[in-house]
User: Fold this.
Amino acid sequence: QVQLVESGGGSVQSGGSLVLSCAASGDTNSAYCMAWFRQAPGKEREAVARISSGGGTTHEDPVKGRFIVSRDNAENTLYLHMGSLTPMDTAMYYCAAAMGYYCPGSSATRYPYWGQGTQVTVSS
Assistant:
């Protein structure tokens, strides 16, 4: 099992930047995919970006060119560098993990491990 703890959320003005972090603990010696999801009020949880154990990344269309996902395997930490933020990015951001070398896709149901979430609020 893997335990996840996010940090780095906050309030920022439109056009600003934030960096989210997610610290993993537990069975981190096994290969695992790490991902970011977000959920805005009244909306479904949606995938943002994910990175495989080997470093292969996928960024969903709404964040391509603005967000970058990365991981430090030595520190068992996942990052999300967010730039050019808009009010549409306002949401609770969640870190998720799934065991295995490759990521299981964009469906939240395929990720059994979740953090508690960190709020990102972007004002216009």
